């Protein structure tokens, strides 16, 4: 077993976009960090306002469909190598640290190298989108509960589950499913869902660029809307979304511009990982 070093890695949830939704604990940790490894879906304002001025900042992803994203195994290696060189390392992820993220892979890497860590939760996108659209996910009389799902591949939801989901006793919240929305609506309708069930798609929730698209299952499926939703987008389905027009308080931004900037430094990080590997080879020689 490796001897535990004195460094510590903080796995921190940055919230869904609005930098003011960052927790007090996260702010304190960021102000003390030597290194911050951040995902794309983290507001630049968080780094600019709360990071220590001397902190090293590495942007690693994730950006679906882009070669700029750093593969997860290289992120794991980067975290470990930086933790071996610095006392306080922050791994900053959008939303909550443990909901639809690759935190398990990173935890395993830290555990395997006997590196101390702490998990700091953040406000997840479902909570942020719910609050910033005025749609309570479990509003009394509209839903008995809420199911949080994802559907970016067919294996993400078991075929046997669609019939239960189609009852809409619960609100359905789909992460990372904007590109699969036609398939999702088709699966639900085939499973017997009420065709009039409404839903909203919330682009870039809690940010100044928040945009909300409204439809229902039959309208979306039959009209074949040709729309590409900007990342990140969250789908909220169920009767609770009838409340959107009544209680929405944030103006809908129809400009639909990007709030989260694309990545551009992947080659730089590849070089950094290679440098770490070369140092390790020299030390073993």
From TrEMBL:
PROSITE patterns: SUMT_1, SUMT_2
Enzyme class: transferase
Domain Tetrapyrrole methylase: 8-219
Pfam families: TP_methylase
EC number assigned by the record: 2.1.1.107
Keywords, alphabetical: Methyltransferase, Porphyrin biosynthesis, S-adenosyl-L-methionine, Transferase
A Gene Ontology biological process term: methylation
Involved pathway(s): Porphyrin-containing compound metabolism; siroheme biosynthesis; precorrin-2 from uroporphyrinogen III: step 1/1
One Gene Ontology molecular-function label: uroporphyrin-III C-methyltransferase activity
UniProt-listed PANTHER family: S-ADENOSYL-L-METHIONINE-DEPENDENT UROPORPHYRINOGEN III METHYLTRANSFERASE, CHLOROPLASTIC (PTHR45790:SF3), SIROHEME SYNTHASE-RELATED (PTHR45790)
Family statement drawn from the similarity comment of this UniProt entry: Belongs to the precorrin methyltransferase family.
Protein name from the UniProt record: uroporphyrinogen-III C-methyltransferase
Lineage: Bacteria, Pseudomonadati, Bacteroidota, Chitinophagia, Chitinophagales
């Amino acid at each position: 077993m490796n001897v535990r070093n004195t460094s510590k890695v903080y796995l921190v949830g940055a919230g869904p976009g609005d930098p003011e939704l960052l927790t007090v604990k996260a702010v304190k940790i960021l102000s003390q960090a030597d290194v911050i490894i951040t995902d794309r879906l983290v507001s630049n304002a968080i780094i600019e306002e709360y990071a220590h001025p001397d902190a090293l900042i590495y942007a690693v992803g994730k950006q679906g469909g882009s070669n700029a994203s750093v593969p997860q195994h290289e992120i794991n290696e980067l975290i470990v190598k930086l933790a071996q060189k610095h006392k306080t390392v922050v791994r900053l992820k959008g939303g909550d640290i443990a909901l639809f993220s690759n935190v398990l892979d990173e935890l395993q890497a830290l555990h395997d190298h006997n590196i101390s860590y702490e998990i700091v939760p953040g406000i997840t996108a479902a909570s942020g989108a719910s609050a910033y659209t005025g749609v309570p996910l479990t509003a009394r009389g509209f839903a008995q509960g809420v199911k949080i799902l994802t559907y970016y591949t067919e294996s993400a939801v078991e075929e046997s589950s669609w019939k239960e989901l189609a009852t809409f006793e619960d609100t359905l919240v789909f992460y990372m499913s904007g590109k699969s929305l036609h398939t999702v609506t088709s699966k639900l309708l085939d499973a017997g869902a009420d065709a009039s069930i409404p839903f909203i798609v919330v682009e870039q929730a809690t940010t100044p660029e928040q945009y909300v698209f409204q439809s229902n299952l039959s309208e979306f499926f039959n009209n074949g809307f040709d729309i590409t939703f900007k990342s990140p987008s969250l789908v909220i389905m169920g009767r609770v979304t009838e409340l959107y027009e009544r209680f929405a308080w944030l103006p809908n931004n129809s400009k639909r511009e990007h709030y989260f900037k694309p990545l551009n430094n992947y080659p730089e990080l590849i070089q950094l990982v290679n440098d770490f590997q070369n140092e390790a080879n020299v030390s073993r020689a």
